Amino acid sequence: MDLKWTNSEDIAIELSDLHPETDPLSLRFTDLHKLVTGLPNFKDDPKLSNEAKLEAIQMAWYEEWKDNHGG
Questions:
Q1: Measured CA distances, 38 to 29, 30, 32, 58, 71 (Å)
Q2: Closest-CA residue to 61 (of 19, 15, 30)
């Protein structure tokens, strides 16, 4: 499945699988942007991101991270 900026839940799951020990709240949006655009099945225009989309991904990833770390 090709991922786009609007697939925040799916992106969060991928990031959680690839970076299980990373607390997503510790990342700057510039670093999060690099991680998202570096995903093998991310097929959207990197320039179409914005703060709201990155925040949605970060929050979805945080929920995954909490579930995996007993939060």
A1: 14, 12, 10, 15, 27
A2: 15
Give the C-alpha separation, 35 to 70, whole Å: 24
Q: 14: pLDDT confidence band, cut at 50, 70 and 90?
A: very high
Q: Are residues 53 and 32 in contact, defined by beta-carbon separation less than 8 angstroms?
A: no
Alpha carbon distance 3, 66 (integer Å): 23
- What global pTM score does this model have? 0.94
Q: Are 12 and 61 in contact (CB under 8 A)?
A: yes
- Each residue of 19-71: pLDDT tens digit? 999 999 999 999 999 999 999 999 999 999 999 999 999 999 999 999 888 76
Separation between Cα atoms, residue 58 and residue 27, nearest integer Å? 9
